[in-house]
């Protein structure tokens, strides 16, 4: 009889499958003890996973529908964006080590050019007053590209500790460069380990091109990421992805060298941050907050288990709801542009009427027309 036989086949298939699936789990439990990955609770007790996220006054939660792709196929992993208003080009760092640029107007509108190959993995980008492009390269450190395309390494260590993941950067109007090393311990490829470790391996650092001095400003940061100078140049905002917050560091005045809260309990993990010159910061959210991530952050033992398991199978963390936030100069959340289907949007930059956003993995820059998509706001 066909039916019982099928039934038997199905049962043995299920049995085989469950054995196959349990091998990695058993192995990871065995290896668990010898593993030197030792995650710890985050600071602040239950704060980071029990409080609701800060309220969003304006939320457009379907931005993929309204997004246009710029340079599709030509811009692999355009992580951060920098705009040069003098030539009307937007620059981005790609995962193949190229800095590429795109014309945003004129007869070459949306044309993409391979500009300079710097060889590492460029992340944060910012223009210096002399129109050099300063690059935080995850692998190489802090680089400078002169307008003629000449590349030089500025610094790759501080206090005897090499950078592991140079990440965000901005340049003050006096030429001083402020940047982050997200982790001295883990590389970009291993960044999830850093995040799941719950340990602060990040630093906020300055580099003075007139003296070549590298100075650590703040230590023990939880995945130090984007940096943006305030318009008055008295302070800067820096993001700590793991703690879903950005803080203000004073660089001049009475409060010089001190830190204030800026915005906390974001609805996701902040990445690059940019000032638009019109009274807002734009912050890339690489992923929205999820129950899975909240639970992992709450229980270090689960993080250890996930990392052990990762050696055998890709553990789905169900990242979603990535997007871009806009925040006032005082740290009030103004708007969120996100989509459930979006992951690893890493930067947002408002240029004219468009919001451009970069990505760690997509092959294009995206943009939405802020005036038009307002009509489909919800
Ligand atoms: C800084 O370093 C560069 C490159 O090594 C060098 O050409 C320059 O003279 C140095 N400047 C100072 C002030 O030491």
Question: Quick gist of this model?
Answer:
Belongs to the strictosidine synthase family. Helices cover 18% and strands 40% of the residues. By secondary structure, it is an alpha+beta fold.
Q: Can you tell me about this structure?
A:
With about 375 residues, the protein is α+β, with helices and mostly antiparallel strands. It has one domain (about 25-375): Neuraminidase (6 Propeller), CATH 2.120.10.30. It contains seven helices and 27 strands. A hairpin with a 3-residue loop joins strand 8 (about 135) and strand 9 (about 140-145). The model has no long low-confidence stretch (mean pLDDT about 90). The site of 2-acetamido-2-deoxy-beta-D-glucopyranose has 2 residues, from loops.
**CATH first level: which class?**
Mainly Beta
Give me the CATH fold name.
Answer: Neuraminidase
User: What's the CATH architecture name?
Assistant: 6 Propeller
Number of strands: 27
Structural class: alpha+beta
Largest sheet: 5 strands, mixed
Rg over CA atoms, rounded to whole Å, is: 22 Å
- Oligomerization: single chain
Number of helices: 7
Percent of residues in beta strands: 35-45%
Bound molecules: 2-acetamido-2-deoxy-beta-D-glucopyranose
As laid out across the biggest beta sheet, the strand order is 1-24-23-22-21
The number of distinct structural domains comes to 1
Low-confidence stretches: none
User: What would CATH call the homologous superfamily?
Assistant: TolB, C-terminal domain
């Amino acid at each position: 009889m066909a039916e019982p036989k099928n039934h038997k086949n199905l049962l043995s298939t299920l049995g085989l499958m469950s054995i196959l699936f349990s091998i990695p789990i058993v192995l990871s439990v065995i290896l668990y003890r010898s593993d030197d990955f030792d995650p710890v609770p985050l600071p602040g007790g239950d704060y980071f996973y029990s409080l609701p996220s800060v309220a969003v006054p304006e939320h457009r939660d379907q931005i993929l529908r309204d997004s246009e792709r710029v340079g599709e196929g030509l811009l692999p992993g355009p992580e951060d964006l920098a705009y040069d208003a003098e030539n009307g080009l937007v620059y981005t760092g790609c995962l193949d080590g190229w800095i590429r640029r795109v014309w945003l107007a004129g007869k070459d509108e949306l044309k993409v050019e391979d500009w300079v190959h710097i060889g590492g993995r460029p992340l944060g980008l910012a223009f210096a007053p002399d129109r050099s492009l300063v690059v935080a390269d995850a692998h190489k450190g802090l680089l400078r590209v002169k307008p003629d395309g000449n590349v030089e390494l500025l610094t790759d260590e501080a206090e005897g500790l090499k950078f592991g993941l140079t990440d965000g950067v901005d340049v003050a109007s006096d030429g001083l460069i402020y940047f982050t090393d997200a982790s001295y311990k883990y590389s970009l490829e291993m960044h999830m380990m850093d995040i799941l470790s719950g340990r602060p391996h990040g630093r906020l650092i300055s580099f003075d091109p007139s003296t070549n001095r590298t100075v650590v400003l703040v230590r023990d940061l939880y995945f130090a990421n984007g940096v943006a100078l305030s318009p008055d140049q008295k302070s800067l905002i820096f993001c700590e992805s793991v703690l879903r917050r950005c803080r203000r560091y004073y660089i001049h005045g009475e409060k010089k060298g001190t830190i204030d809260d800026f915005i906390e309990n974001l609805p996701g993990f902040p990445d690059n941050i940019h000032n638009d010159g019109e009274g807002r910061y734009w912050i890339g959210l690489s992923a929205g907050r999820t129950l899975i991530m909240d639970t992992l952050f709450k229980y270090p033992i689960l993080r250890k288990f996930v990392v052990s398991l990762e050696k055998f199978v890709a553990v789905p963390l169900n990242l979603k709801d990535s997007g871009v936030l806009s925040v006032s100069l005082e740290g009030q959340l103004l708007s969120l542009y996100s989509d459930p289907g979006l992951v690893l949007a890493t930067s947002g930059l408002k240029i004219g009427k468009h919001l451009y956003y970069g990505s760690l993995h997509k092959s294009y820059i995206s943009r939405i027309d802020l005036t038009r998509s307002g009509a489909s706001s919800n």
